[in-house]
Structure formats: C-alpha cells, structure tokens
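Handout, tutorial session.
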Amino acid sequence: MKELIINKNKLRDTATIPELGMLAYRIFPDTNRINIQLLMGEQEEATIICQDGEVFTLRDQMIRLVVK
C-alpha cells in the first residue's frame, strides 16, 4: 500500500508518489476534509476525511494518508 505523507500545518502543498506521480492537496480545516488531485497524466481527485490512517484509492492504487 502506498503512503501519502502530509503536513497538517500546510493547508496547500504538493507531494509525489513514485507510481502515480505528482499530486497537490488542499486541507479544509472547517470540515476536516482534504482534497487530493493527481497532476500527472489524466487528472483524478479524491476528497476524504483528513485523518491519519485514512485509506483511499486513486488510479486503482490503495493509498494510506499519513498526517504529521
């Protein structure tokens, strides 16, 4: 399972998952949600609860959110 590590103090940032490429995320503190968008190839996005250990899928890859 892949991991996406985010910094909860940065409301907007980018990250890279080698198998998927670069992605951008935006945290919405008022709803405790995070929107994650793949920036490579065909764009795809997911909005999930911003909670450590939350699991979601992008391009058929299971990804676990790690909040630091």
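The second record follows below. Compare its token runs with those of the first.
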Amino acid sequence: MRTLRAALMPVLLLATLAACTGGNRTFGERARDAVDPPSGPVEATGRAVDRAVDRVRPN
C-alpha cells in the first residue's frame, strides 16, 4: 500500500500543476505547439508542467 501511495504522489502533483495552466498560453507557446506539436500525451503534459512552473516562479 505504501508503494502504491508513493508512486501516485508524483502523478497527483504533476496533474495539479498541469491543471494550473488553463488556456492562457502566450503567442510563443501557441506558435511552438503549432510548429512542433507534442508527440504524445507525456510530452504535452511535460510542456504544461514546465509552463505552470515558469508562471509560478518569480522573475
């Protein structure tokens, strides 16, 4: 049970961060997705997480 819980915690964290992005993508993000679309759900989630973390981090 502990192993299952430990495996699901990062997934929950990533899903929460990915949900934060919403539809508020910048022009550059939309252009990148148009020119170089994510090759699958894992890459799309990775980009969403990167964008969410970049928005949370102070400049």
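Points raised in discussion: The two ends are 40 Å apart (CA to CA).
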